[in-house]
Write a structure and sequence with these properties.
single chain; 130 residues; mainly beta; 2 domains; two-stranded antiparallel sheet; two-stranded antiparallel ribbon; 1 helix
């Protein structure tokens, strides 16, 4: 006889602080093989926060120093990399705004770039913030 409350789903509860997963075997350790070039940073939210492993609403984050300005981050790899997935988070809890993220790649040392992704986010403190 089966348990009427059992859904058949395999599950386990994470330990506190256990939401961080171990680095996947094919994950690129950006900090060890690239230089991060950036247009500006807020001293309280430096570019190092991009790679500190913290994630989720309210986590550390990079913030540009100039509000309402186009900011750029360039990941300059020491050697060519094969990238099949990009994971990033965007959060705005204070004001309503739209943010556009563009991802471009170069295979000629930065002389030319090819756009591979454009994603637009709309934030509203009374609605979507993350």
């Amino acid at each position: 006889m089966s348990d009427p409350h059992s859904s058949g789903l395999r599950k386990r509860q994470l330990e506190p602080g256990g939401a961080r997963s171990a680095r996947a075997a094919d994950e690129v350790d950006v900090a060890s093989c690239a230089t991060i070039a950036y247009s500006s940073e807020d001293p309280a939210h430096p570019v190092e926060h991009l790679l500190d492993g913290r994630s989720g609403p309210g986590a550390t984050r990079w913030i540009g120093a100039h509000p309402n300005a186009i900011e750029q981050i360039v990941v300059e790899f020491d050697q060519a990399q094969t990238i099949s997935r990009l994971v990033y988070e965007a959060e705005e809890a204070l004001r309503e705004r739209t943010q556009e993220v563009r991802v471009e790649v170069s295979d000629d040392g930065g002389r030319t770039y090819r756009q591979v992704l454009v994603q637009e986010y709309t934030f509203s403190p009374k609605g979507a913030t993350y």
